[in-house]
Amino acid sequence: MAAPASPDSAVTRRVVIENCAVATVDADDTEYASGHVVVAGNLIESVGAGPAPEGLVNVVRRIDGTGHLVTPGLVNTHHHFYQWMTRGMATDHNLFNWLVALYPTWARIDAPMLAAATQGSLGMMVKGGVTTASDHHYVFPRGSGDLVGAELAAAREIGARITLARGSMDRGGKDGGLPPDFAVETTEGALKATEEAIDTHHDASFGSMVHIAVAPCSPFSISTELLRQGAELARRKGVRLHTHGSETVEEEKFCHELFGMGPTDYFESTGWLGEDVWMAHCVHMNDSDIAAFARTRTGVAHCPSSNARLAAGIARVPDMLAAGVPVGLGVDGTASNESGELHTELRTALLINRLGAHKEAALDARKALRLGTYGGAQVLGRTAEIGSLEAGKLADLVLWKLDGLAHSTIADPVTALVFGAAAPVTLSLVDGAPVVEGGRLTNVDEETVARTARAEARRLARIAAEG
Q1: Cα–Cα distance measured from residue 434 to residue 25, given in angstroms and rounded to the nearest whole number
Q2: What confidence tens digit (pLDDT) does each residue in 280-331 have?
Q3: pTM, whole model, 2 decimals?
Q4: Which of 251-260's residues contact partners 24+ apart within 8 Å by CB, and which partners?
Q5: What is the sign of the dihedral through the CA atoms of 188, 98, 220 and 283?
């Protein structure tokens, strides 16, 4: 990855944020009770204690951050944007029954529906401090239009960075899979379409707004051949690999019955462990599984609210971190996490993991913040660009308002952000440009997004009902 060019101090436009608490989430967890961040163009120029340096030129905006905390932008490592269309359904189901209930509706989605769902899903995350998001889209019904193009165009309007994990399914009901047969692709067709998505949209340059990953869906909806060839395709193209893994006990049973081994061993046998791989959930991991992930530097997208919603269990996040496994946070699809917000997952991850074996020592506020920022960047392979506030990194950052009633008696700002109520976002920058101002999206009209999503959700429900 090429290093960024240094800004020309004579011409670069600068934004100065000062008088705020700063949590850099750098390697030393450096924090300032009252500090500053200077943004030059699309890069962070300086971070430090006290006011910004004197003599800065071309300062186009100076922000008094009194009562605020500035952090790196949050990084969402796993989502299914299209599920914005089916929120609030199958609310009392486990994963397998939930999938069976919703696949027939999902299989009717088309490009306008996905565009509307993308703006709803991504818009909610961005309003809550997300600056980079990964979406795993794996439903490609015949005749549905250019779904990849529709999603990326909708995301571009919001203004966030995106890793689109181009998913696929080739194991339908007749082959022992969960999705209906009309909802799956052929192995050859899925691989060809995935390669086309990479060639058309993937940008590997420093500061890229779009990455594409190879992402067959899950062991119970894909063939072994799709996994093997998908791994080969990803490594030939130099992109990352993503899938679901070890989410439920039913999945573990499925793998043993079908492949004669557990999910981790199965993934390793198909080339799906490595530092270019991350998997969603990883709830049911034994010591050997965690050791394999640590040895290969395979990443994990921890989705605590979705895991609770679907009664999947509690992932062993403290053990993964102790072993050296890269771990980030994920919202997961909004049909299993209806709030669709990552900043609330900081608190949820901390609380749920304290219900596990490590109790109160499982996670603290700063570990939770690291999961949602640097950990996510690590999982997506972007730590040279995002995930911490350091000079030379991209200006993706969030200014959280902590001086209101909700946080008024919590002295430590990081504790207030993680343990307290969801903090309002005063300002969020992506690539140095505002995507949120005063809690509102800057690049799209929120009421129009909501209205369009409602209309498309009704259209989807009507088409699904007609069969």
Answers
A1: 21
A2: 999 999 999 999 999 999 999 999 999 999 999 999 999 999 999 999 999 9
A3: 0.96
A4: 251/95, 251/218, 251/219, 251/220, 251/284, 252/284, 254/219, 254/220, 255/219, 258/176, 258/219, 259/219, 259/224
A5: positive
